[in-house]
Amino acid sequence: MRLAWAVGSLLVAVVGGFLYVIQPFPGMQARDAIGERQTIDRDGRRIVYYTHGTGPRIALAASAGREASDFNELTSALVEAGFRTVAIEAPGIGGTEMPREVFGLYDLAADINAVLVADRAAVGGARTVLVGHAFGNRVMRAVAYKHPAGIKGVVLIAAGGQKPVPEDAAKALRRCFDPLRTGAQRVEDVRYAFFALDNGVPDFWLRGWHGNTAILQGKASPATPDTEWQSAGSAPLLILQGAQDRIAPKEDAADVLAETLGDRVEVVVIDPAGHAILPEQPEAVADAVIAFATSVSGNDE
What we know:
Blueprint: H1 2-6, E1 11-15, E2 18-22, E3 36-42, E4 45-52, E5 57-61, H2 72-80, E6 84-88, H3 105-123, E7 128-133, H4 135-146, E8 151-157, H5 167-176, H6 183-194, H7 211-220, E9 237-242, H8 254-261, E10 265-270, H9 282-297
Parallel strand pairs: 5-6, 5-7, 7-8, 8-9, 9-10
Antiparallel strand pairs: 1-2, 3-4, 4-6
Helix pairs in contact: 2-9, 3-4, 5-6
């Protein structure tokens, strides 16, 4: 499987005596992330991130196996609204190096915190709002719990993790990373797992599926027996919930968090949207994040 993921953009496979041309290859780069590329070293590992704009800081962590470029549209809107964005690549993506050992959620959170410490040293300012999409919501909750200094709020987009993923959606999700699926099959896999059926699937969501990263991330929650990260510390929370999310339906995601965490939680339901949300409803996402970040950032450093 690793060899298959390592091949180029055009994969030819013989399945059941038939020849299939599989393109685009899922592990291809989705697109360039916007912003200035930065690197730091943490414990001998390189971490890559992208900074853009000035103002109160908003840090961004993408979905499982996905790239920081998933936030490009949100990044542009946030910078225009007067914020500074810091989009961090997960291990195995865009030059961020993989660890040699199993990483738990708190290790992934330590990567994010190291980037935030470096950015504070570079440009000043302690205020930070965390934004995590899908699996990134777990990582950002772990950051807010373990490294609360300066964290003014947390935005959870497609906030799964409270209950198991429904089986049909889980199968489609796994298939997004499968290099032996045809291009047409991948469109349907991505659509079912991530998009409301009436929403188009952009071409950059047919690429950017980094399997080794997803494997590492899939092991992170089981490797973290402490579940206190689920609380996201004590920061205010905004949850953006897709009305048609099949991976993290409202009753399994936003409703559970709102009931568990109480008045700290604000829920915004976005319709029509699935688990992807970001490419489906970029203006609605940007409006909600900007309003929340403005309300919680304040003027104190």
